[in-house]
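Batch manifest, entry 17 of 40.
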Amino acid sequence: MTNTVVIGAGLSGLVAAIRLARGGRTVTLLTKGLGGLQLSQGTIDVLGYAPERVDAPIDAIASLPATHPYRVLGPAAIAAGIAYAQELLGDRLVGNADRNVLLPTAVGALRPTCLVPPSMTAGVVTGGIRYVLVGFRQLKDFYPKLCAGNLERQTTPAGDPITARGIILDLPAIEDMADSSALAYARALDDPSYRAKLAAALKPLLQDGEVVGLPAILGHRDAGAHRHLEELLEHAVFEVPLPPPGVPGIRLNEALTALAKQAGVRIVAGAKVVGFESAGGKVISVGQATAGRIRQYAADAFVYAPGGFESGALTMDSYGTVTETIFGLPLHGLGPDLVTAGDPSDQALFRVGVGVDASMRVVDPAGHIPYSNLYAAGGILAGATRWTEKSGEGIALASAVAAADSILKGA
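Output type: structure tokens
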């Protein structure tokens, strides 16, 4: 029997699996796909809005509703989650949980976030910054003049103006290719000769003191691509995240997946978990549909980290009934007005999810534990609108570490 089964290969599932395996557990991770990190911007959002923009995320937790995952976890657990991400990823992430920074988005908005890759730090909004945004005629996901124009309509947090302009280069990722993806450009920029070609085309167009913003394509596997391009251009360079799938998210996913495998986690991908067996108030095994049959995976503890509505772990039928799709767990946040005529991004429906206690053990709305060895983490948790709050990665990390630690301690 494997000691622990983790369901889900997003940020929370991978981090929980790594922590459990490094703590001495035998871990099997089950996933129907590649996980949601490829759809992320490669940064760690802890809390960006509550509902106004937040400068100090951990300090702002006290203002959140009592049902929010952060209020259940507490500041110490959130700080522990961030610290563990930094321990795992080292110099791949820069920042701390006490302070947000502002970064430009692909449309020229200013986005608060907490930890960022080194390839984005030069773009942090500061007084007197002068941006030049650079796009490619063959890359349709980034329009530098639109981004620059919107940035100039805003100011820094201190009220200073932002200066920005846009440049479009005619430089395909692959010769004679009219349309290229961000990943194609990232793979091209793994090659030092292509970086030199880009620098030769771009450097004559730059002005003294400008910070160069490129779409998030600065290398797929070559961690030195960003610094090398800075040396060639003799300008600070930063990446602007693009619509998903995003290259920084792909890098983050690949790094954590490699760490999981190094820790001995067995990853079984490509098939959905479709059911479970239980006895004596415990989950005994879960079934994964593969090769025309159901394969059972038994364990003495289970971490459920499948995501929420976006992954199909939660569904709503035409009668407005919301269900959790594997264990049939009782959900928190249900009520008569889940969808209203208000703000479509902040509906009560999106706060529906699985409830947990401080150890991340699943509980029903009355506080009863349906299965004593079932823990939940990440996007399945009730009480947060992660995309509106910009809190998804922070919740994933804090809950993953808390769930893993509870299992390791035998809670």
